[in-house]
Amino acid sequence: MRKLLVILLMLSFGVGFAAEQHEPCGPIIVAKRSFIGQSGDMGPTTIFKVRKDGLYRVSLYETSETYTQPYFTLIWTDEYGLKIDGGGISAFPEIPLSTAGTVNAGQVVVHCLAGTKIQFTNTVYGQPTYNVYVTVEML
Fold first, then answer.
1. Is residue 10 in some structural domain?
2. Domain tally for the chain?
């Protein structure tokens, strides 16, 4: 009886202990960058240096006090080489804040190789002052 009780206690402790050890689930934020008070085009800007092959979600939020039409281009490398995509981020829908400002936002999912970079560039029409906020999550 004593042996059975000890075994049951050990199993209970072991199961409880194992239940607390788990892999993180869901996306993990690996980078956050803010570019405040920008007033012109931005050349290739590194957002994140990839340490592990995998899927990454890049979320971008741009805001300005005046009307702007930014054209964002994402740059990354997958198993087939360098990718330069102006179609994903540049196609963000514009959501008017008010008559004095605009917001552009969106997300793109990419597959990247370790040892490469996730970057973006942009072209801004006119000379507005704007802010860009970028978050990268590993999926």
1. no
2. 1
Residues 37-60 have pLDDT tens digits of 998 899 999 999 999 999 999 999
- Tokens representing residue 113 in the block: 């190789």
Q: Which residues, listed in sequence order, are joined to residue 98 by a DSSP beta bridge? A: 101
DSSP 17: H
Report if residue 113 sits inside a domain: yes
Tokens of 61: 């939020």
* pLDDT tens-digit series, residues 78-125: 999 999 876 545 444 454 444 456 777 888 899 999 999 999 988 887
- Looking at residue 49, which CATH number applies to its domain? 2.60.120
Tell me how far apart the alpha carbons of residues 64 and 130 are, in angstroms, rounded to a whole number. 4
